[in-house]
Design goal:
Number of helices: 14
Structural class: mainly alpha
Distance between the termini: 27 Å
CATH architecture of the largest domain: 3-Layer(aba) Sandwich
Helix content: 55-70%
Number of domains: 2
Largest sheet: 3 strands, parallel
Strand content: 5-15%
Shape: elongated
């Protein structure tokens, strides 16, 4: 605990794409070097919206774990485990639900937003209303000092902080009140210019081969105002340039890509060629590691079992302290 402890997880939505890599995994990989880190697949959380269609959760979990490992999660430094394998999460969730006021949950920004967005799903369930309590359990069971979040997620973490403070007020100082570890995530556009998303069909996946990546990048939308090769463009509104900001060295962007686009000195195909020159070597190792891991399910299972064992030790100690404090 001398370095501080970090906890973070992801809902299993299937194969991960570049948005996940640069929006979470890259950050996790840095954090595992700086903190005592615990990372998990939040498969119980998937039930909050997918309770009527559960058949894909196991396969989605498998795909996500492969991507996490291939991206560089070092499980010798940071345990990787499945939420549903540790009953301690569920038991602490039950205890915390007894002290959490309903208005705290009803004012959660995501509660109303997702009800309005996911109109095809019945989200009038206790599980959906109470998922912030389960999220609090996930964090508090490991006495995490920090939770990596974007600025828009801070209100969600505040519910966890309020629950921890309320528990400590009622029963004594047992739970650690976590702090947000604010992280800025780069903009990762999809191939159609919108935010990269599986649901939009515009994603470049970590499982994609170099040939598949190339086939997706070449027809990517660019500056819509640049119709002809001779037309000057505007990198500030070009999704391809957003990817250059991630993969292409700044010196090359500033000296060649940006001015070349603005003066029509380079065409969009040339611009994409430069992007692929940097992008493919960066993604190739992930693709190769993933392909190898996919042939060794025994190794992946051993990694998860080890992660579960290590996580369970910490979670069990915290749960025992919480129950002792509550005198049950």
């Amino acid at each position: 605990m001398s370095r501080g402890r970090v906890l973070s997880g992801m809902r299993p939505t299937g194969r991960l794409h570049l948005g996940h890599l640069f929006g979470a995994l890259d950050n996790w990989i840095r954090l595992q070097e700086e903190y005592d880190s615990y990372f998990f697949v939040a498969d119980w959380h998937a039930l909050t919206t997918e309770y009527a269609e559960t058949k894909g959760i196991r396969e989605n979990t498998r795909e996500m774990v492969l991507d996490m490992l291939a991206a560089g999660i070092d499980t010798s430094k940071a345990p990787l485990f499945l939420q549903s394998r540790l009953h301690e999460h569920a038991e602490l969730h039950l205890l915390l639900s007894m002290i959490t006021p309903v208005p705290w949950l009803e004012r959660n920004p995501t509660y109303k937003d997702q009800q309005q967005e996911l109109t095809t799903k019945d989200l009038s369930t206790y599980g959906f209303l109470g998922y912030p309590v389960l999220m609090a359990s996930d964090i508090l069971i490991y006495k995490a000092n920090y939770v990596p979040v974007g600025i828009d997620q801070v209100p969600h973490l505040e519910v966890t902080r309020e629950i921890a403070r309320r528990f400590n007020h009622l029963y004594g100082e047992v739970l650690v009140v976590p702090e947000a570890l604010l992280t800025e995530f780069p903009k990762v556009p999809g191939t159609d210019g919108r935010k990269m998303s599986k649901s939009y069909g515009n994603a470049i996946y970590l499982a994609d081969s170099p040939e598949q990546v190339t086939a997706k990048v070449k027809p990517m939308v660019t500056d819509p105002a640049r119709v002809r090769r001779s037309d000057p463009g505007n990198p500030d509104v070009c999704p391809v340039f957003d990817l250059h900001k991630i993969f292409t060295p700044k010196e090359e962007r500033d000296a060649i890509i940006d001015p070349g686009c603005r003066t029509a000195g380079i065409g969009c195909l040339d611009c994409k060629g430069v992007l692929l020159k940097h992008m493919l070597p960066a993604l190739q190792p992930i693709y190769e590691r993933r392909r190898e891991l996919a042939t060794r399910p025994d190794i992946v299972q051993e990694i998860l079992e080890d992660g579960c064992f290590r996580a369970k030790k910490v979670a069990g100690e915290t749960l025992a302290e919480a129950k002792e404090a509550m005198q049950i």
